[in-house]
Amino acid sequence: MFLADGWNDFRVLDAGGGMKLERWKQVTLLRPDPQAVWPMAECEADAVYIRSETGGGHWQMQKQLPESWTVRYRDLTFLVRPTGFKHTGLFPEQAVNWDWMAGLIRAANRPVKVLNLFGYTGGATMACCQAGAHVTHVDAAKGMVQWAGENRLLSDIDETKTRWIIDDALKFVEREARRGNTYEGILMDPPSYGRGPGGEVWKLEDELYKLVSSSASLLSNDAVFFLINSYTTGLQPAVLSNMLLMTVGKTRGGLVTSDEVGLPILSGGVLPCGASGRWQP
To answer: Using CB atoms within 10 A of its CB, is residue 36 exposed (0-12), middle (13-18) or buried (19+)?
Structure first.
């Protein structure tokens, strides 16, 4: 398992009964998690996310919380803000991939350009920039790109290290291919389902292979990594390995690995958080 065990400001305190109890620096949150199917002891939290029967949900505050606050991972600082759709603006399990990419970028010891598709609020973008890369950050949601910009400032990343694009991921990739642009690192963190800025419908199982194949054509001759993340229950690590072997690996060889991604639970055990597929030369 790719285990994100390098956090100090974040901890999964306990999990079970379809919920997870987390500590985000000084704040405890109780949020739904479909993987936590075992029982959990009674617990209290500063805020609890309550799902609605008609979709979505809301936060039930047990005490007055700040609208937002910051957490640190190594030398990076991120803005955390509980949103109406359960998320907080950060997927802490991805820290294990941030470390992996940062290590490869530093080891390259040369200029590295990275393409971050579905970049969200920029956790991976900041990690790659801090390691020395220039990152093109693509997301269809303007608000998420703005949030990523706030994280850039908090982590003191030079603005010349990033390029912000609000666009559909596949359309952007296809335009980059026509322009002849290439990257030494590519990562993608696609949602299971979503809509692009023009109303385009995205369904992971139907679209992922085309996106991976198209993106693979953007890798430069001296590429250092390709990363796919998946939160969809039906896509096991071997599926991600197969996609990488059939696309990047078919023309470049290299090493393909895949595994579950997880977070340690302070009370014991590991909380599974999807899967990642990795390629490196």
So the answer is: buried
Rounded CA separation 190/197 (Å): 15
DSSP 132-191: T-EEEEEES-HHHHHHHHHHHHHTT--GGGEEEEES-HHHHHHHHHHHT--BSEEEE---
Q: What is the DSSP letter of 161?
A: G
Contact 273, 265 (CB under 8 A): no
| pTM exceeds 0.85, yes or no | yes
Per residue in 8-58, pLDDT (tens digit) is 999 999 999 999 999 999 999 999 999 999 999 999 999 999 988 777 899
Tokens matching residue 143: 């608000």
Question: What are 138's two structure tokens?
Answer: 């693509």
Separation of alpha carbons 138 and 169, rounded Å: 7
